[in-house]
Amino acid sequence: MTDPVSVIVPARNEAETIRKVVSILLGMADVGEVVVIDNGSTDDTAAQADAAGARVVSETRVGMGHAVRAGIMAAKYDWVMKVDADLDKFDTDLFARMPAARGPGIGLVKGAWHDPGDNMPMTRLLVMPAICLMFPGLGHLRAPNSGLYLFNKSLIAPDALVDDYAVDLDVMLRVHAAGAKVVEVDIGRIEHDVRDVPHYNAMAEMLLKFFLSRQNRRLTTEMVVMAQDGAEVIRHALGTIAAKAVAGGRVTIFLASDQGPDGQVLRKVLSPYPTVRVLPLAAANTFAPGANATGLRVLAPFPQADKTEVLVTAIGVHDAARDIASELLLMPVQQGDRVIAGFRPDTATENEDGLAIKREALYHLDGKVQESTPPPREVFQSYGSLPEALKPLFHSTAKRPSAG
């Protein structure tokens, strides 16, 4: 028997059809439950869904993203199928193809349908070009913005999803960035009502805004952080790390000392994000980038004569990334209240999405509320800008991680 599926159905004022929709879904193989998200209805959608056997969740904030997020968080099973409330337009027998397509390494199955009266202008003119330019690993999809799909929710942080209709793309990009495969199955034919130009204009503006918001987040550039302890990470790089985690990117943190209270603080504030791992430094010898990684950004402490192990290991990981672009950036090192001499920052990161997480970690670390908000940028020095006299020392002792 395959893993059961939770089906989530965002619904607003669907009292006339929701009962039939729920009955159809509950009769499908692999479906373990149906969750209807009553998204601010003014009719008796909730009562009709409940009477048909669905579990009803109320989400008063109107918007597809709000509804989908509430449904995912309420779902009992890891595998979640998101469908619309207009199933009367589909050949629902073909929906069984989505659970059947699950397999090793697959994290999301898109349901691709075709409409003989719709030449898909949004997909052809906006979504597909953006996908091919920004996420070429998803260029094989015919219907990347389909709102009918099945995915493994354990791969993403649902609470960080966008609020609007771009949520379906957001889920897909997060699964892809997490390193899982995204596949597609044909679920037949549908005939939608004719959409007018204002509908497409509004949709295009919303989706373009979403893609632009993802442009500088480099979701498939994986981040690896190496440090002496959690405090070093929290003070000098957590905003950057948290911003990557909130967007759904993969982050692996290796600590020479990972069991202290600062390490526990780091784990606690990053625990909502399944694409983040905090591991002992020794585990770096087996590190390998995720399957969908297109780049690697390695962060490590600025050189210290008496502490070389962390930087040496970071150089090994950086040098081992032969098939993808890799950069090595150095974090400032603090001695008392002062940054170690010689640190010359030349790279800054925008990390506004991670500031709340950094502020929380600093509170737990120092035991007091920060008098001011952490700066919205963190600074690093590129390894290539180090004086040449320092580089041979570290390269001569760097060990490449094993391919395993």
Supply the CATH architecture of the largest domain: Alpha-Beta Complex
Fourth-tier CATH superfamily name of the largest domain? Spore Coat Polysaccharide Biosynthesis Protein SpsA, Chain A
Integer count of domains: 2
Strand order, largest beta sheet: 3-2-1-4-6-5-7
Computed over alpha carbons, the radius of gyration is: 24 Å
Tell me about the largest β-sheet: 7 strands, mixed
| First-to-last CA distance | 32 Å
**Which outline best applies?**
elongated
Order of helices and strands: EHEHEHEHEHEHEHEHHEHEEHEEEEHEH
What is the tally of beta strands?
16
The CATH topology label of the largest domain is: Spore Coat Polysaccharide Biosynthesis Protein SpsA, Chain A
Helix and strand composition category? alpha/beta
What's the helical proportion of residues? 25-40%
Q: Uncertain regions: pLDDT < 50 for 5+ in a row?
A: none
Mean pLDDT value: 89
| The level-1 CATH class of the largest domain | Alpha Beta
Task: Kindly estimate the percentage of residues that lie in beta strands according to DSSP.
Answer: 15-25%
Helical segment tally?
13
